[in-house]
Amino acid sequence: MSLHLRLLLGFLIGLATGLVVHVGAGADSGWLQVLTTYVTQPVGQIFLRLLFMLVIPLIFSALVLGVAEMGDIRSLGRIGGRTLVYTVVVSTIAVVIGLVLVNLFRPGDGIDPQVAQSLISDAAERAGTIVASSQQAGGIGMIVQIVPDNVIRAAAANDIIAVMFFALIFGIGLVATDTPGTARVKEFFQGVFDISMTLIHGVIRLAPYAVACLVFNLAAQFGWDLLVKLAGYVGVALLAMAIHFFVVYSIAVRWFGGMSPLAFFRGSQEAIVMAFTSSSSNATLPTALKVAEEELKLPPRVSRFVLTIGATANQNGTALFEGVTVLFLAQFFGVELSLLQQLTVMFVCILGGIGTAGIPSGSLPVIAMICGMVGVPPEGIGLILGVDRLLDMSRTVLNVTGDLAAAVVVSRGSGEAPSDTA
Ligand code: ASP
Question: How far apart are CA 237 and CA 233, in angstroms?
Fold first, then answer.
């Protein structure tokens, strides 16, 4: 049975039993307390902690390699620079579209504030220090704190932004230094990344059981409300993705790439179908490379470079989805996020898009981490995972199409001849 099917099954089992308990037993019954305290809560917690445990090695190695893949600074600086600027700009647009729509429709609103409050107080205790300290520091202090004075302390304090910043700088240093030693360092980080991926795959295999437990807890507490809100969330996420896909990509390829959007989407078809069915940018990479050269006729050197990096580093759909999800969960649990906090979420989502692995449900650890940062209970992930299939397929389509759009834009003016493969 496929992972997504098992996740759905876990979700349905958790939901059905949770709702039965909600209607029949009431939240105070003794056996329910025992069940949640000794079974469903610990199982859910262990799963979340396994995800948290892998965040730092995964994101750090992904970011270092993402920058290091830019190759040697002189020959690739131009293509690398353009790719980076494109990634940051278009990811920002994606996240902003998502955040505006969630604020507009507020799909998570309306939960009983008392129930929500009891959940938040736990999460607030676990929340990372970054948001609290950046609020104390005010606007400029927040920027200063992006630069860690001690990277080990930043990692220990779960100050992920500072860790990400260090990873980026480290990656740049790695590209700029060409010695036998640095080649080994790069290999080392490739190894760390590969190991993290194996472990994430392992943890994700446990997800169906954790989802059943997490959703059971939430359904027993919130009842039917849950389903209505989830439907709203899926609707808003899909709408935001559709806008980004049809509007932003069309503008990017037309204005900045000089290609007709119709020709672009038609040429990309094969990669789009592959992304939709596999839910994995990495798995779609070979198809994307083929499409870029044979259908879109892009210069191979540029498209190979942009697409290979993009499969991990340029994930517009994922960045958008992460923003929508964290804000939805914040609304659901009644956590008010100030503008500054929303900006922090946006910033982390942009970097999160770069640091997310291009595998099915690769966003999971990143969402768990961002939730923790802003004081939203990461348990909400159980809810999201149950309905993640369609969203994962859709955001992967955005990720892959976004890489192809980037390749079109970066190819223009790169001075390279287009592919001559017919
Ligand atoms: N499945 C996505 C991809 O491979 C990553 C994610 O979970 O957002 O592009």
Answer: 6
